[in-house]
Fold these 2 entries.
Entry 1:
Amino acid sequence: MLAPGLAFVVLLILYMKNRAHADPLAANHLSQTVGVSLAGGALILVIIALILVLGGFDSGYTWMIVILYFTFIHSSLILLGVAGLVKAMAGEHFRYPLIGRPFKP
Amino acid sequence: MQYQSQAVAKPYFIAAIGLFVGQILFGLIMGLQYVMGDFLFPEIPFNVARMVHTNLLIVWLLFGFMGAAYFLVPEEAERELHSPKLALALFWIFLIAGALTILGYLLVPYAGLAKMTGNHLLPTMGREFLEQPTITKLGIVVVALGFLYNIGVTILAGRKTVVNLVLLTGLVGLAVFFLFAFYNPENLVKDKFYWWWVVHLWVEGVWELILGSILAFVLLKVTGVDREVIEKWLYVIIAMALITGVIGTGHHFYWIGAPEYWQWWGSIFSAMEPIPFFMMTVFAFNMVNRRRREHPNQAAVLWALGTAVMAFLGAGVWGFLHTLAPVNYYTHGTQITAAHGHMAFYGAYVMIVLTIISYAMPILRGQKAGNRSAQVLEMWSFWFMTVSMVFITLFLTGAGILQVWMQRYSDAPMAFMVVQEKIELFYWMREVAGLVFLIGLIMYVWSFFVKGDERVVASAATA
């Protein structure tokens, strides 16, 4: 939330570095998190772009929907991230609901 | 109940719930006054309803914190409370003083109340959230000192754990920072500056220590996870809360006439304030995920997890939304602030008090946990109140964004009351959500009276 771009770059480096030789649990978590970050990021950017194009930049209502949508989706993704982190700390596999990559534990 | 003196917590919890109901009723009255300006006027003017709504919140949370301390401290210190009689005497003093103050707000014009209570001798009245007559404030100090003495002696004479020491530190901080309510300089900048030392350093400082310790205590009990693990988490969480929250006070100094450097200090440190709440969420879910037992009080587990999530959203995310100085330049004092205030107070402090009540009340009534039917109703009340609070926050945020756009950001800004009329729909929707919240609260209160098969819970507890 504080520095999403920076956190994503760190995550990407970890993923590139470890995907080949990480143990299956770590590989799954890295792959899930990178996948969801990309899908979630796209979800945020594409939908916001659509709202702005359809609603126009000069409407207060457009900005209201953009800010509420961004806050809601971003918070939901953070809370899903917490769920994933808790599972990883417990040494358990996790698949993000709806947008997580399928995997075989 | 491990120690008989823990029973003094019960009247505190009952009073807290009673005052909570009062707070919500006045919230609904005020919510309606936003759209029907003369509703209940002149009997209950808007400013009085607002004062009662916010003051009741503070008073019932203090009752909740004190009840929590009286329940938790003997168990942690492994000894009876130093003086249960003192705890009960302070309860009645606080309740009567609180009730008289609220009646004073409702029955006497505020200026008359100030005159009647001798405010001119030591003027402290007339400031938001600190509207109480000076004599009530002195009463609060007496109650706080007696309470700290009772709790402090119990802890110092007994086992010292991280949970009860963090709780004590938070409670001492609460009492110390309240003393700034007596400092009322004529210079408005200084007045506002030190006013925040009470308000901010309570809710974004020492109260977080109280929140953390109560949450840690309940998680310790319901999950059976090792004390060492929970205590380490608590240390890190409160350290982050204080590191970010103390200098984060600067986010209130942006536009009050304080030096400009506060815009940097306030922005940087308060941007980090979500971190302890994020950690609290990870902590709560991690402990429940690693639990060693299935505690029969599932309602308490739900409240504990809910506290962490809602505190993160309300205090963390909604605080971050408008904390950076360039954003706050446009948003301060709008409905965005109200949205943040509602969800943060509910998530962090209302829910933690309801968590400890949910855990302790069955024990205080001689059961390990409430019967299944009571718990189901309580869990429904959790969802009703929590979901309606999410909607209250979303509607107020929507109203706030439009308010900023029309009143602050626009090249041709509209007048305050013109904008208020334009966002009326959001106030109506907030009022409907508030009614759903009240239904949830009624269900919550009702859950204490639901009868069921206590044997089912008892067998689950021994399983």
Note: Residues 36-92 of chain A form one domain.
Entry 2:
Amino acid sequence: MPETVLADPAAPAAEPGPRRTALLGGRIPLARLRDLALVPAIVVIAVVGQIVNPVFLQADNLINVLQTMSEMALLVLAEAMVLIVKKMDLSLESTMGLAPGIAAWLVVPAGAGHGLGLVPGGWSIPLTLAVGALVGLVNALLIIRFGLNGFIVTLGMLIVLRGILTGISGGQTFFRLPQSMLYLGTAEWFGVPASIWICLALFAAAVVVLGWTSFGRSLYAVGGNVDAAKAAGIRTDRVLWIVIVTGSVLAALAGLMLSGRLASVASAQGNGYIFTVFAAAVIGGISLSGGKGTMFGAFCGVLLLFMIQNVLTLAGVPAQWIGALNGLIILIALAISRITGGKVQE
Amino acid sequence: MSDGERAGSPAPAPADDARSRTGPPVVEATGIVKRFGPTVALDGARITIMPGETHALVGRNGAGKSTLVSVLTGLQAPDAGTVTLGGSPAPRLTDPDAWRRRVACVYQKSTIIPTLTVAENLFLNRHDHGRGRLISWQGVRRRARDLLSAWSVDIDPQAPAGDLSVEQRQFVEIARALSFGARFIILDEPTAQLDGAAIGRLFDRVRDLQRQGVTFLFISHHLQEVYEICDMVTVFRDARHVMTAPVDKLPRAELVAAMTGEAAADRRRERSTTLDNAAAAALSVRALGSEGAYRDVTFQVGAGEIVGLAGAASSGRTEVAETVVGLRAAQVGEVEIAGRRPRPGSVPAALAAGAGFVPQDRHHQGLVPQMSVADNATLSVAHRLGRNGFLGRDRRDRLADDMIERLAIKTPGPELPVSALSGGNQQKVVMARALADDPRLLVLINPTAGVDVRSKEFLLDKVEETAGTGTGVLIASDELDDLRMCDRVLVMFQGRVTSETARGWHDHELVAAMEGVDLHA
């Protein structure tokens, strides 16, 4: 934790409490507005996008953007929670591939690729989520119970899980998925893809839980100063277990949505996502040193990234250059959020 | 969460009879024994604290003070002995809530969560809940405002706790303790990170609360503070209780003797100056200025001379000293160390010019806690450890052994991580490094902060000894004991050097000058 606590005795300590900067007669402290720091950037990108190509603001395109980002957004949601409690989970991207991969392996009929056809198709969703939970439990066991370094543990898990998926699939892609696995990625509710609804609903739930429940606030307490959280009577280990396991389950759900949308599970599903996830979380104001950031900010972070990518595509940037530009976008977005957020990112 | 809501309403006791020492003792601990493996941290220790008094607990590092605090706050169970709180036996360790209602400790290490607001810190894990079991932030804020104003703490409950000063954070922690219902508060070296004015405000607050019926146990290295604010004092030495006495009937020399186990002189003996006028000045500072910190600072430190740079925390003394050693750069003016002008703002250049320094905060700038004593002591003299950037392990250990001996650092060996040492010994490591390269100029910033009496004497003796070898010494401090041996003391006030006194000043003169008060007006 940043022990800025060892305060500089030379700092002028004499002034009374820090002055509150507030709007609307003090009802909204300015600190809260930091959550909205990315909103202007999003508006600017929307305007630029509209100028570049009038297609941008049409409903179809916006839905397309939201649907493409929905899986990544769930990973960002998961990673944001983990980062707030001052842990890290790199293995989310592999969980995203492995969880639906195992389900497909067990469900897809034998003869077609590497499927075993052991269980009926209806089991695929519970199976996927169970694999996610299991991965989370292993991570939590190693990190919390055995006190191993979370970064290295999940790095190891990232490689192991990816390897397992490659092993069971023989490096191939699972096709002919059961109907239940396709549902979340293909269904439309009220004319909008189900994955968008799920993504928005989960973010809304996360905003409420993290902002307005004791459990949610305990995440910030644990990440901000774990000893102080303990002293306040928070069961810190339990909070960490819940967060890590929930994160993995969310990753499994994201994998399910992606598999459904693509109607397949590739052995490389999710590969390389984690970098974008971290970038989106940090751009969205989640501190890598724990205890800071909001779910709304995280959502804005991932939204901003995907909008910029969409604008580039609409502008006709050659596909070969998209990779380089994506990296550049992340750096630029970080710089923008540093300027609008006004604080050094840790 | 409902029980948290009940506990939240502060109810200051009426002020009238609070100081009458009636009723059972707030705390009575007898025959406390606590062992950690082979070391005995407390050996039959005892303490009795009566309601409404401010009780000091003093002792050198390792006397068992911290262990006693953890026993009194329910963090550790004693191996033997009994603790009673307010006349009834202490709760079980598994019931932290019961402990919290009786006693609280404000540690040196803050238990405030910097990323949350003050209000949330106060009511963490016992938020107000409104409709649908969601937290009612309005309720939390209102309760925080009520709590802070009931104890007249002038802090905005919606400010992020990370923006608070050390002093304000202590007030928040005290208010939180009171909100649990505790009326007995332990302050563990509360003044270590505060400047003179903030200490004054803290003491005012303590006296206020004392009038409202709050009892304090005050742990400090500064005997001056004990005399200023405490009624009773208990001395621990080598894990045992040595004495308990009313402060106003206890001469200082006796208190120091009780702490150190020998009759120590309260005042340092006079030293004769070792200023060598023939040699070139160790430091000359000319017309140094930096926006918002100090301006027009000019002085010289001769070879073998000890010069004090006194002043309150925001006076600019620390900034000037840091500029001299290159931790910051001045906007105007120049710094000349032993006849050379190092590049401003460059520590390596200042070191190469012959400076050695002890930074103001050893935790922050002085030491790499997980590195060994040997590594820390030789961090700045890599060039003496080997050629071409490679470090010679043997040479390092030899050098470190030599330093450990010269500065009497109490460590089992040079390989020990420096974080395992006591505060006094850590500071000796920092000092050892400052002296490692036989500096022409030694700059010390608050050299004895958080250091026990004996180590303090030792460190200051070492400084004198160094000056005796022709090194110029600059001490930036507001600690009078640090300044006593100086040949001259320059006093800074609001960024300017306002006066200069030769040795033989009286405490009150210097303090008045540092506070910007003119005694003769």
Note: Residues 1-31 of chain A have pLDDT under 50 and may be disordered.
